[in-house]
Amino acid sequence: MKKSLLVVLVCVSFFANAQRWTVEKANAWYAKQPLYVGANFIPSTAINELEMWQAETFDPATIDKELGWAESLGMNMMRVFLHNIPYDTDKEGFISRINQFLTIADKHHIKIMFVLFDSCWNDNPKAGKQMEPIIGKHNSGWARCPGTKMLFDSRTWGSLEAYTKGIISKFGNDPRVAVWDLFNEPSNSGYNDAVMPLLKKSFEWARAAKPSQPITAGWWTDHPMSNEFMFANSDIITFHNYKDPENLEAQIKDLQSRFKRPLICTEYMARKHKSTFETCLPIFAKYKVGAINWGLVKGKTNTIYAWDEPMPEGGEPALWFHDIFRPDGSVYKQSEVDAIKAVTKK
Question: Could you say which residues form the signal peptide (predicted)?
Fold first, then answer.
């Protein structure tokens, strides 16, 4: 690495870390929070973040209905993905729709964790009409944010900076927003170390917007460079765990021991991998670790199907991978609903 580039990266890391919450501040904040239990939310009528947020397909009626089902379980947090394209193409409309969404969530006593960037699934996101789901394929239309072309061209990052600062400045003191999750699984899709410049910038831009809520980005796999940066710069520690309850408990103990900061698991619950509500939720409650599973309602994202087991013929798999409700509001498995309510005391 050239010396000048190394100096820049060190300075960026210092800038981001310099405003990080202390351990004491993070734990004082968390002491005032309930045990967060919820889901990664997208309405069943949207295939991806663009279809959720663009004016033509924004669906407040479905959002209201489905967040009502979440409320009936005692869920009190949803993790929700944003995207830079609606900000670029319709800033005022996008902000208005976010505000409308937050009003609906607040009506159902649900706090929101927003995600700004994402390295997962389909590349080259575009505004306008989105693709139709591929039958039986998990997340066939989910869109990366910002996509490889922008990720590798820092000359285009002025719009990403405007998006990050604009959204966080607007909602950075909004009590309906609980946490900012800046970058989902940043090293995914083979990006590895190449994602680091934008990951670092996302923290720099977010800190500059001075939100009152904590900032984070989470562990998802053993990628040392991004993990160490995120651990060193996040106010609270977030992580993903789709493994069995023994693995989950060991990871919780390790993260609590290493960082002494609040923990929220921002993705879990994959039935075929023995990550279930019945077995994992008691562990989250035991350690007061927030629990945000993937998926609420079976819909266009096709997340009842497993990542690696498409069903081209369609139909309902014998074992759902994610999700809790069918589109009519009936539940996939009553014992899971009972397990959620036992923890939320609903």
Answer: 1-18
Q: What is the pLDDT of residues 72-96, one digit of tens each?
A: 999 999 999 999 999 999 999 999 9
Which domains are assigned to the chain?
Answer: 3-344 (3.20.20.80)
Six-digit token pair at 251? 């990871």
Q: What does the block give as tokens for 305?
A: 């199907």
Residue 250 — φ and ψ, nearest 5°?
-65, -40
Tell me if residue 276 falls in helix, strand or coil: coil
CA torsion, ordered 335, 341, 344, 346, to nearest 10 deg: 180
Find out whether 219 and 177 touch, Cβ atoms under 8 Å: no
Spatial distance between the Cα atoms of 178 and 29, rounded to a whole number of angstroms: 10
Name the strands in the sheet holding 77-81, side by side, starting at the edge strand that comes first in the sequence.
215-216, 177-184, 111-118, 77-81, 37-40, 290-294, 263-267, 237-240
Token pair belonging to 288: 């007061």
Q: What is the largest CA-CA distance in the chain?
A: 59
* pLDDT at res. 150: 98
Determine the length of the chain.
Answer: 346
Say if pTM beats, i.e. exceeds, 0.90. Answer: yes
Alpha helices in the chain (DSSP H): 3-18, 23-31, 49-53, 60-72, 84-89, 91-107, 148-151, 157-171, 196-209, 224-233, 245-259, 277-287, 334-344
Q: How confident is the model at residue 16 (pLDDT cuts 50, 70, 90)?
A: low
Please state whether the peptide bond connecting residue 146 to the residue before it is cis, i.e. omega within 30 degrees of 0.
yes
Give me the helix-helix angle, 334-344 and 277-287, nearest 10°. 10
